[in-house]
Every structure is written in C-alpha cells, then in structure tokens.
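Example record

Each entry pairs one chain with its bound ligand, NAP.
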Amino acid sequence: MARPQILLYGPMSGEVRERLAQHFVIREWPGSEHAEPFLAEHAPSIAGVATGGDIGLPNEIIDALPALRIIAGYGVGYERIDAGHAAERGILVTHTPDVLNDEVSNTTIALLLAVTRRIVAYDRYAREGRWAREGSPPLAHGIAGKRVGMVGLGRIGMTIAQKLGVFGCEVVYHSRNRRDDVSFQHYPDLIAMAGGCDILIVITPGGAATRHLVDRPVIDALGPKGTFINVGRGSVVDERELVAALAEGRLGAAGLDVFEDEPNIPPELISMDNVVLLPHVGSATVETRAAMAGLVIDNLVSFFEHGKAITPVPECRHLQP
Ligand code: NAP
Ligand code: 8YV
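Structure tokens for the complex follow.
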C-alpha cells in the first residue's frame, strides 16, 4: 500500500523529518508565495499535516486539502488550529498534552522565584559592580505562606500547584468549572480571587474564550504588592493595561513567558527591574521538546497504522472509534 503523504507546515527538526520519513511521504510547505502550484500538484493526496502550535494551520489550507484526515499539532495549546472547523469536515486534530507538564511547571516556579527573589536584578547588580561600589542590594520577598491564585488548574496548573505546596504557598484557583478532586478553594469570580492573593499565575489556553480575562479590574485587585506571572498565553492578559499598571506602580512585579504579539515585547517592559521576561520557553528543553515531537509522530503513526490517534483535542474526540 502507498505510504500516506504528510505536509510539514512550518519548521520541524531534522530528527522529526527522519522519523516521519520512515512511515510517510513528506511534503514541505513551500511558503504562501508558492502555495498555488504546490497545492495544484499535491493537495489531492495530502492526508495529514504536522504543524507547530505557534503556527497552526489556516482554514484556507484545511479547506484546500480534500484528502486531509488528521492535523497533528506540536504543543498542547492549539488555538491557532480551528479544531471546530476541522471536526465539521471530519478531520481529527491532535496535540501534545501531559509530556510537558513537568517542564512548564518548573519554568513557572523558576520565573516566580526569579521575580520575587529578584534573581535577574541581583545578577545585573553583581555584574555591574554595584555590590562592591554600593554594598548589598535591597531585600527581596519569600514565597512561603503567600497566597497564590491559579488562573487555570488543568494538567499544567495542577502540577504547578503541587510544586507550590512544597514551597509552603497556599493555593486557590479560578476556572469555569470547580474541580471535585482537589481541596483548593475555587473562585468563580476572578476579581474576588485576585483581591485576596499575593501572586496570580495564568496557565489557561489562549483563544477567544480567554481573551483579556486578566483586565484592569483584575490587575488592580492584585494591586501594588501583587506579583503577576503569565505562562499561559499573552492574549489572556490585556497587555497594555499590564504595562500601564507596572509603570504606574499599581502592580508590584511580573514574570512573563508569553506576550500578545510574539516575538515582540512591549518596549516599556525592557527597562523595568521588577519584571522578568522570557522568550516563550516554558517547555523549551531538549528532553521535553523531544517528547513533544515524539507524540506528534506517534499520533500520526497510530492514526494511519491503527486507525486511532493517541491525544486528540476535545473538539475532535467524537471522531475516534
Ligand atoms: P488544560 O489541562 O486544558 O487546563 C486548562 C485550564 O484552564 C483548566 O483549568 C480550565 O478549566 C481553565 N480554563 C479554560 N478556559 C477557561 C476560561 N475561559 N476561563 C477560566 N479558566 C479557563 O491545559 P494545560 O495542559 O494545563 O495547558 C494550559 C495552557 O498552557 C495551554 O493551552 C497553553 O496555552 C499554555 N502553555 C504554555 C506553555 C509555555 O511554553 N508558556 C507551554 C505549554 C502550555 P475550565 O475548563 O473549568 O475553565
Ligand atoms: C510550545 C506551548 O513552545 O505547548 C504549548 O502550548 O506553548 C509550548 O510548549 C509551542 O506550542 C511550540 O509550538
């Protein structure tokens, strides 16, 4: 039987290409300027797509591929793939949940400690020779005994919450649904939760449903002594309001791994000593990225060889036997 044809939409590592090539015929997306001749030649036979969560797949391309049966996303967040639209066409979308829980939760804790213990500011202070010239820098803050509000308590949020327990934090959470399997206090009202917290951590999906969930009233409720951490998606926070609150001293400090217009960071944040900035590296270790890539490949292989993918997104689960 002929091997299925897979479109690689966006960059994939050499190792991923090699492993995919053992099972499939690989077609590389040539870029939008060469789309027309590419689609004319290959669209009728492309049965699967592998793509990055940060790139997704436009609906125009989904609709231009009549033989498409599966879109395998690299990343747990899949807001750039219209899973509802794909499902309507009978196309399964998969993502890479769980394999990155540990890494993203470690990054979150590292970012939180970097902000509260002023690790990056202290590093700058030491490098600039200020310790020798000016003496010890101002004290930082500890996190033991602090109340942390989790905005999102799913796979990654729960892993972060468990680790925060080891640091002696009190965890509460906001989400649309209350979980029956945890003893953490649930707040249906995010402003009420933020008002009683020292630290707010965002770890929800992006997309329309969470856009600007953290807005000015939430930021003001967290207040001038509050610390805000975002490892979810930049779109969940009204970034203009966040920058204004930091600049005006209405918010104490922030640690950000994600931004509204990646890879662009609001320039006002660059010079702020109470802000730690990361270039969306929550899952960015060799080990975790290999596990994510492995799951992309395993989803495609399992789907084409056994008729069932491993980790379909919720919108598409009904398409599986
Ligand atoms: P998950 O298991 O689906 O958890 C999502 C959590 O967010 C759930 O608690 C969910 O609860 C809550 N939520 C969803 N929509 C909400 C809304 N409209 N309002 C309030 N809460 C809402 O997802 P996960 O695996 O933990 O991943 C979470 C997200 O982290 C990903 O989607 C991705 O955007 C981000 N992420 C970032 C990085 C990074 O590198 N920075 C890496 C991996 C993932 P309810 O459904 O009850 O509301
Ligand atoms: C990845 C992420 O950096 O999994 C996610 O949702 O945000 C990160 O792990 C990204 O998806 C890679 O495309």
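Residues 52 and 268 are 29 Å apart (CA to CA).
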